[in-house]
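check this:
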Amino acid sequence: MKKNILFLNHSVRDGGPGKSLFYLLKHFDYSSYNVNVLIPSKNNFSENIEKNNLNVNQIIDKNFPENLKKPNLNMFGNSIPLFFIDILINILRLVFLSITIKDIIKDNKIDLLYCNGTQAKIFGAIIGKIYNIKTVWHVRNIQKSFLLSWFINSFSKFNNVSKIICVSKATSNQFKINTKNIVINNGVDTSEFSLRSVNSKLREEYNIDSKKIIIGTAGRIVPRKGFDYFIEVCKQISHEFKKDCIFVIVGDTPFYFKQKIMENLKTMVKEYNLEDKFIFTGYKNDVDSYIADFDIFFIPSRYPDPFPRVVVESMALSKPIVGFDIGGIGEAIDDGINGFSIDTKDNPINKLIGLIENDDLRLNMGFNSRKKAVNNYDSRIVANKVLKEIDLLFS
């Protein structure tokens, strides 16, 4: 008899957790499991589910907010953020959902809760405890605040939390007791993320000469991602080393951050006289079509990024990766093989210049990136590992 799983997923736009869950469900075992997903609304996540005709029952409930900071008040079509009030309202919504979810669990005969995201982990642990249901956490972030770290360490001790899947060793290490933990890295469909499959757009859209080296990065434009540092490095490459490169940032700021972040980055580019060499593409659904034209992918995060999907996606697209040896980034980069993993105290400029000046080095490292992505991070491999852990819970 099939077992019934309820995935709790509040990442429905274009964030890493939602993408990672989609690739897990793309290669899931639907012959053994009935799959239900609780989401706050239909968005990118739902579009991907429906486009691929996945046998997933989507349950939409507005009381399951995307983010505790999500605004609740709208006026003239614009949301009005009221920080503490919004958090309070969204917590009350979750309390209400903890009562009404009983019907969802009963109607769908749920045997297992699978929590995807920080909010989902805490909510799922409580729900699993209330209704006596086995619970799996898929941990895709590293909590730096004392309060959140205390919360996840405390709730992870609940008996119903049976398995904690972590996307990197660094992610697992945040737990004081990790006997329930297993490390399974993020996955990407390497047949989809391939230079043979992707229709590259960047050079044509922005009329970039085929001989010019493109150094790019991508992700959500938020303070901790280090995009301001990326611009500082670009300034060095252009002005101090006189390299005629094109620099690209693909991405935008989520709704719950102030848009001033992007404005500040554009002001930096203007002040550094880089405007004719710098491209902000904004948000793109098809990020792979833009990364495909990069010659070098540089991830400027100097905080412990758990295991950024964009690094794995860039590896699958045969890009040499330059980043700092912190969090899960250093676990993905084999220093000197598929890119350069740099100490956070060091300047990456010499490594980047070396790649700019050496075509063969870029090609060899790009080849090794693709090889590692196919052998280690293909979503089929990742899905099989996750399914084995789920199967063990029912054996």
About this structure: The longest helix spans residues 83-107. The domain at 202-376 is CATH 3.40.50.2000 (Rossmann fold). The first strand starts at residue 3 and ends at 9.
